[in-house]
Design brief:
This protein is α/β, with parallel strands linked by helices. It has three domains: about 80 residues, Orthogonal Bundle (Multidrug-efflux Transporter Regulator, Chain: A, Domain 2), CATH 1.10.1660; about 80 residues, Methyltransferase, Methionine Synthase (B12-binding Domains), Chain A, domain 1; about 120 residues, Cobalamin-binding domain (Rossmann fold, 3-Layer(aba) Sandwich). The chain is about 55% helix and about 10% strand. It contains twelve helices and seven strands. It has a five-stranded parallel sheet, sandwiched between helices. Strands 1-2 form a two-stranded antiparallel ribbon. Helix 3 crosses helix 5, helix 6 packs across helix 8 and helix 8 packs antiparallel against helix 9. The chain starts with 9 loop residues before the first helix and ends with a helix.
């Protein structure tokens, strides 16, 4: 496939493996673990085989194997040793690196193979919390520092969303077991980052509650209709880049929704954490997804 990246710079390897470029240069010089080609201007370039070998070396190194020992192994021995090591934390780390490689190469098959391998020993919830959340945090930092292009982030995020939607649909086919609360999930106007709020939807369903998911960019006034259909409402939203003035948004929400419907409003997200004044005790700011899940 012509769009797959086949040549990598030393910076690319640093991003994907987590090993600093100066360490890679030292390993090359002292242990000959990689043999890059060089351009006419003497710049190192690496192939896919080099990248895969480095990911395996990184994995072994993180498991306590010294580079001096790894360098004496044949490529096949390195691969077999990696396969023989089974540790939850390290398998998570290796999966994250594999997903990063999938993202970098727009390689859907690698994503699906890595995901299916994780499913052999983990639930979807464990995969999301132990692998996808750290992966997305790492990708967010890479994007902010211009180490990857926004299209990389969109590619991997949408594959994760695809798996999330499949698991949500499975839970939606089960009848809610609890009726003391009904959760309404939405994002404020112009907010389009929906991956986190979708995971909240999954957790609510997993806990046996009714979840009404209304999606992205919803005008506040449209929420008042819900009390005609459901009682005991809890609204949940995730503020990533919107609203621009979250404090004012909460004041309006308190006046237009809470005072009229006698409900609660739970919020998460970066912009939510910046709010200085909460206008009602019925508005709860959650510092993390874990805190919200504990309240369910």
């Amino acid at each position: 496939m012509s769009y797959i990246k086949k040549q990598f710079s030393i910076k690319d390897l640093e991003v994907l493996s987590g090993i600093k470029a100066h360490t890679l240069r030292m390993w090359e010089k002292r242990y000959k673990v990689l043999k890059p080609e060089r351009t006419d201007t003497n710049i190192r370039t690496y192939g896919l085989d080099d990248l895969q070998k480095l990911l395996n070396i990184s994995f072994l190194n993180e498991n306590g194997y010294k580079i001096s020992r790894i360098s004496k192994l044949k490529d096949e021995e390195i691969v077999n040793l990696v396969k023989s090591i089974s540790s939850t934390n390290n398998s998570n780390d290796r999966a994250i690196k594999s997903f990063k490689l999938s993202m970098y190469n727009f390689d859907q098959n690698l994503f699906f193979n890595t995901y299916n391998s994780l499913l052999k020993t983990k639930t979807f919830r464990e995969i999301f919390q132990q692998v996808f959340i750290p992966l997305l945090d790492s990708i967010g930092m890479l994007w902010q520092t211009n180490s990857i292009h926004p299209v990389h982030e969109h590619f991997i995020s949408n594959l994760i969303k695809q798996k999330l939607l499949l698991n949500i649909e499975r839970l939606q086919q089960e009848k809610p077991q609890k009726a003391d609360k009904n959760f309404v999930l939405f994002l404020p106007e112009n907010e389009m980052h929906d991956l986190a709020i979708l995971y909240v939807n999954y957790e609510i369903l997993l806990h046996g509650y009714q979840a009404i998911y209304l999606g992205q960019s919803l005008p506040m006034k449209d929420l008042t209709f819900l009390d005609k259909v459901y009682n005991n409402l809890r609204f949940i939203s995730y503020f990533t880049v919107e609203p621009q003035d979250p404090g004012k948004y909460l004041e309006n929400f308190n006046e237009q929704i809470i005072n009229k419907l006698d409900c609660e409003f739970w919020i998460l997200g970066q912009r939510a954490n910046s709010i200085l004044k909460i206008p009602s005790e019925k508005i709860k700011v959650m510092k993390s997804l874990e805190e919200l899940v504990r309240r369910l």
